[in-house]
Amino acid sequence: MSTSPMDSLHDLKKYDERRPGFAGEHWLVLGAGAALLLASRRSRSPLRRTMGSALGTALLYRAASGRQGLAKVLRYLPLGKRSWTSV
Questions:
Q1: Contact status, residue 46 vs residue 12, Cβ threshold 8 Å
Q2: Does residue 18 sit within a domain?
Q3: What is the number of structural domains in the chain?
Q4: Does 57 reside within a domain?
Q5: Is 37 exposed, middle or buried (0-12, 13-18, 19+ CB in 10 A)?
Q6: Percent of the chain, pLDDT > 90?
Q7: 71 Cβ partners below 8 Å, 6+ apart?
Q8: pLDDT digits over 28-63, tens only?
Q9: How many CB atoms lie within 10 A of CB 52?
Q10: How many percent of the chain have pLDDT more than 70?
Q11: 67 vs 1, 4, 38, 48, 59, CA distance in Å?
Q12: Range of the structural domain that residue 32 is part of
């Protein structure tokens, strides 16, 4: 029985939320994102450049925001005072 990519992504996200973090995790993710961005710039393939840029940016976002994502940042902004679960 094959699983869909979305099911696999949800399973990966559930695992990531359950596992304990470790010291320096954000620094490693930041380095990996920056390395991926720099490496993707050198590729001749437009697909590799686009995918590398997207994945590198996602890793940089992850390093900056942590596990809670944008929810941590939004609570300090005027728009973040309202509940985003109702949107």
A1: no
A2: no
A3: 1
A4: yes
A5: middle
A6: 29
A7: 84
A8: 888 999 999 999 998 899 999 999 999 999 888 888
A9: 20
A10: 74
A11: 31, 24, 24, 27, 12
A12: 25-81
Residue 22 has pLDDT above 90, yes or no: no
> d(Cα 16, Cα 39) in Å, to the nearest integer?
26
In a domain, 16, yes or no: no
Token code pair at residue 69:
């994502």
In a domain, 15, yes or no: no
Cα(41)–Cα(45) distance, integer angstroms = 10
The residue behind tokens 């596992």 is 19
Higher pLDDT, 30 or 9: 30
Q: Say which residue the tokens 């686009």 belong to.
A: 50
**Residue partners of 52: CB distance under 8 A and separation at least 6:** 36, 37, 39, 40, 41, 43
